[in-house]
Specification:
Blueprint (H helix, E strand, L loop, with lengths): L2 H16 L17 E4 L6 H12 L2 E6 L5 H5 L2 E8 L2 E8 L3 H13 L4 E6 L9 H10 L1 E2 L2 E2 L4 E7 L13 H4 L3 E4 L4 H11 L3 H9 L6 E5 L2 E5 L1 H17 L5 H7 L3 H21 L1 H5 L7 H5 L3 H40 L7 H17 L5 H24 L3 H41 L9 H11 L2 H10 L2 H26 L1
Length: about 500
Amino acid sequence: MNIDEAKNEVKNAVRAYLLKDEAGQYEIPVEKQRPILLMGPPGIGKTAVMEQIAHELGIGLVSYTITHHTRQSAIGLPKISEKSYGGKEYSVTEYTMSEIIGAVYEQIEKSKVKEGILFLDEINCVSETLAPTMLQFLQYKTFGSHKLPEGYIIVTAGNPPQYNKSVRDFDIVTLDRVRQINIDEDFDAWKEYAYKAGVHGSILSYLEIKKENFYSIKTDVNGRSFVTARGWEDLSRIIKVNEKLGIEVNENLTSQYLQNTEIARDFADYYELYRRYNELYKIPDILEGRFPENKEALRNGSFDEKLSILGLLTDKLMDEFRDYAKDQAVQKILFEKIKEMASESDVVDFGAVAGDMESALDAEAEADMISRDDEKVRRLAISLIRELSELLEREASGGSSVIDYAKKWFTEREDARQARIKATDTHLTHSFEFVEETFGNPESLTGSQEMVIFITELSNAYYSLKFVKDTGNEAYYNYNKLLLLNDRKQELRNLVYELT
């Protein structure tokens, strides 16, 4: 299955393992909760998926790469204890707490959440001395003499032998005690995540054209070369930063993230072309309804060029859709805090509110109980509440006027947000008009393939769907219905052809 399907399987398994009955006991006893084993190529997002699941379920996460551990750090150090058996004293060997089990208890202490995931990566690459210990752990959930706390689910991950020479095969005894999920690389599944994560548009457009370069691991006379999903995402981050700083993006940079000379060079060349298309076709002008005059040249251009233009258009819109979601989340926090303060009988102090919010957020971030995006939203909200507090100190006084001023301040922000929503709605409508005017074919039964590609991309991305669902867009609905109708017409045409 692909990484998205695997995520759903793991998430459902965790939910099932954590379900309790009316007596407060787990429906599936802890000893019967099979550890999950994810098997798939490196760099496809197994660790990122664990973080997403933990944040979505509001549980803890402790991650370890097991190959970094020795037997001593995994099970603890031996110590001599005195025990009494049958009235006689004996010296016995016990073990200090495992570093891994200790980390789980530390996470529980920090987060105050007793349920979570213990994720052990590269499980099938353990050393010879640690292998029996890992088998014991998978069977009995203990390292040495210390048991994993109830409520923590074991998820492990490993790479198939073709990707790692140090891999050891699990025997049937071990495999019969785990739930194995095999994962394949899948660009379409990753693309859905990539849109949500804000991966640079040049990467998405390039991979749409050359999907075969999404994931590649090769070994030849020149050694091993590889390109992974992790590499593309990390490259995206540095491209965005370099663009802000005005630093060139070239093959010297791409080859640091894409460990395949041909693909690194090819993408560097494409990025330069993508950047030139952006300057040539003036995407911001298209969003404002000012379309290029020479539509014939665009219509007759290569398919790769058309995909690049659609990619640029989609990328700009996605930035606005993500900003919409961020603004909405921030505004919701502000509304709730002002409403809460309005109901207080004590003196209103927004500065103190911001301080309390920051302390709570710092604690959650320290315990890794919040996603990066959620943390960003809450820090923006805290910053704005501090800004409001400073404005109040200069321009308002008295409990009643403080709330009145805060409400007025909030309303002004909401008016500005609604104006941005209207602008984004207009940009989306203009984009549909541009694609239709430039690539539309009134004689085609199924509509232009460019329109199909454009609306499919919007329909498969989280933030674009959220925007349309929340605010509506007549052009999106109309073209979506038209494409569905045209698909039905094509089906009927094919049926008639078969019958006659």
